[in-house]
Amino acid sequence: MYRLDATDRRIMAALDDDPRMTILLLAQRTGLARGTIQSRLDRYRTEGFLRMESTRIPPAALGRGLAATVSAELDQHQLEEAMAGVRRIPEVLECFAPAGNTDLLCRVVARDPVDLYRVSEEIRLCPGILRTSTSVFLREVIPYRIRPLLDAPD
């Protein structure tokens, strides 16, 4: 497993400020050579260190201002079918397999409560899903962030 060094942290902090920054601008902002920037970015992509830039688009800008979690209990014999079904639902932004009583925890978005019901039902009706429970987010307290981790000591 590759461990980030101080150079990686400088590059990623600059990218966190502006993920669409060009290699030339990244080199200028970080004081690093363009070749260094390019090789590090290639490594980040290969290792899966960078999220897609579309994660910075707020769902509300796409008409999906209501956010929630949908937890699901699975028939363990149909895990792959359930995951395939959930993947096909565009309103499912992320899905995790947590420890505890919940088998899947999906972060979803919807247009309004009626639309959230539809999204929850789509998840519930996926093959292998036995039951779901939905919790609505009333407001975002801390938006997705990575910068504090980049700035924290190892």
The averaged pLDDT comes out at 91
The helix/strand class is alpha+beta
Tell me how many strands there are: 4
CATH class assignment of the largest domain: Alpha Beta
**Shape assignment:** elongated
Number of helices: 6
Number of domains: 2
Straight-line N-to-C gap: 15 Å
Q: Low-confidence parts, pLDDT < 50 over ≥5 residues? A: none
What does this molecule look like?
A four-stranded antiparallel beta sheet has the order 2-3-1-4. By secondary structure, it is an alpha+beta fold. The chain has helices spanning 6-17, 23-30, 34-47, 79-87, 113-124, 147-151, and strands at 66-74, 92-96, 104-110, 129-136. It folds into two domains: 6-55, Arc Repressor Mutant, subunit A; 59-136, Alpha-Beta Plaits. Helices cover 39% and strands 19% of the residues. One of its GO terms (cellular component) is cytosol. It comes from Kineosphaera limosa NBRC 100340. This is Putative AsnC family transcriptional regulator.
Describe this protein with a few key phrases:
39% helix; 6 helices; Alpha-Beta Plaits; Arc Repressor Mutant, subunit A; sequence-specific DNA binding; 2 domains; alpha+beta; 4 strands; four-stranded antiparallel sheet
Per-chain topology:
Elements: H1 6-17, H2 23-30, H3 34-47, E1 66-74, H4 79-87, E2 92-96, E3 104-110, H5 113-124, E4 129-136, H6 147-151
Antiparallel strand pairs: 1-3, 1-4, 2-3
Short description:
The protein has helices spanning 6-17, 23-30, 34-47, 79-87, 113-124, 147-151, and strands at 66-74, 92-96, 104-110, 129-136. With 154 residues, it is an alpha+beta fold.
